[in-house]
Amino acid sequence: MASTLYFFLISTSFTPTEKLSQIQLTFGDITKLVQSHVGRCYQWSMDELFPVFHYVVVRARIQHLGAEIHFIEDLIERHLENGQLGIMFTTLKACYYQILNEKVI
Predict the structure, then answer these.
(1) 16, 68 in Cβ contact below 8 A?
(2) Is there a contact between 7 and 22 (Cβ–Cβ < 8 Å)?
(3) Could you tell me the CA-to-CA distances from 31 to 19, 34, 46, 100 in Å, in that order?
(4) Which of 16, 51, 89, 96 could form a disulfide with 72 if both were Cys (CB 3.0 to 4.6 A apart)?
(5) DSSP state, 14?
(6) 35-61 confidence digits (pLDDT tens)
(7) Which residues contact 16 (CB under 8 A, 6 or more apart)?
């Protein structure tokens, strides 16, 4: 799955903007894949998108995901926090929070 590769490249990017671009590419790839099966007019809801994105985040196996998130959060240009990139970044933070608080039975 190319989206896992796109997301994995977040750890090799150097600036917060490049890291956000990798997140955007990941979302774009997931959307293209779903639209190829369901139809081009398909619109995601967060209830459908979150588990798929969560799967990609887990499969990417980024060792220091928390550090990557804090790096972006600390150095992001404030105008990028709003809009589509902001929502994507918030979704990543929610995935990370769920990974940290998940209890394995």
Answers:
(1) no
(2) yes
(3) 19, 5, 12, 26
(4) 16
(5) -
(6) 888 887 878 888 999 999 999 999 999
(7) 71, 72, 75, 76, 77, 80
d(CA 88, CA 24): 7
pTM of the model: 0.90
What the block records as the tokens of 36 is 């190829």
DSSP state letters, 18-86: HHHHHHHHHHHHHHHHHHHHH-TT----HHHHHHHHHHHHHHHT-TTHHHHHHHHHHH--GGGGSHHHH
Q: Tell me: the pLDDT tens digits for 55-103?
A: 999 999 999 999 999 999 999 988 888 899 999 999 999 999 999 998 7
